[in-house]
Design goal:
By secondary structure, the chain is an alpha+beta fold. Helix content is 29%, strand content 29%. The radius of gyration is 20 Å and the shape is globular.
């Protein structure tokens, strides 16, 4: 008796997974994870979600989050270090997102829109799901860059907190400090020990990137 269709599909998927791992790619985990679900026929828990990437600028100590893969790749060309996917979020519905500071004031925190602001004085980016914080920072000179993605419902059983930290000792950017965002509780705790101010959860992730042992 020859191999079944399932046997052939399984072997093909194993070859694909092995190939990905042997290529020495920086981020094989998600690709392997996708292949496992395709091969098994199980529903993909990442369906309908978008990856949030994190970058680090070694020249001024800033971190940046982006859901824009093009931005992620372009910044790496000018010296930013790619740190991979930190979380998965729902893509924001543009029809409901605030596009100007005036419309931010009309939204509610319960809507879960995560906004990005830019500080032109030190290059820091800040993310918040609190409309009143957006308005206050804009009043202080931060530039509003719009709603970038959707926070998970904090009351959901599987919602994952994304923590915000602030380093007031940052000296590479005129000593004005820098923010960092992480869903990793160990990173949050360790940076707190090193003097970063722990600002607690500022939004919630739908899922974390998979890991391959």
């Amino acid at each position: 008796v020859g191999p079944t269709v399932g046997d052939l599909v399984g072997r093909h998927c194993q070859l694909l997974i092995t190939s990905v791992m042997e290529e020495g790619m920086k981020e094989p985990a998600k690709i392997v994870y996708d292949l496992v679900f395709i091969c098994s026929g199980r529903p993909d828990p990442y369906a309908g979600l978008i990856p949030i990437y994190r970058l680090y600028n070694p020249y001024d100590g800033q971190h940046l989050l982006t859901a824009d893969k093009d931005e992620y790749d372009e910044l790496s060309k000018i010296g930013w270090e790619q740190e991979g996917v930190t979380s998965y979020q729902k893509e924001i519905e543009l029809s409901t997102a605030a596009t100007t500071l005036d419309t931010v004031g009309e939204t509610q925190e319960s809507e879960g829109h995560v906004y990005r602001l830019y500080n032109p004085f030190n290059g820091d980016h800040l993310y918040t799901a609190v409309p009143s914080e957006v308005s206050e920072l804009a009043r202080l000179g931060w530039e509003f860059e719009g709603a970038k993605f959707q926070s998970a419902d904090p009351s959901a059983e599987d919602a994952i907190p994304v923590y915000r930290l602030f380093n007031k000792y940052m000296t590479k950017n005129a000593g004005l400090g820098a923010h960092l965002y992480t869903p990793d509780e160990n990173e949050y705790a360790e940076l707190g020990k090193l003097g970063w101010n722990q600002e607690e959860a500022c939004w919630y992730a739908e899922a974390l990137p998979p890991s391959v042992d």
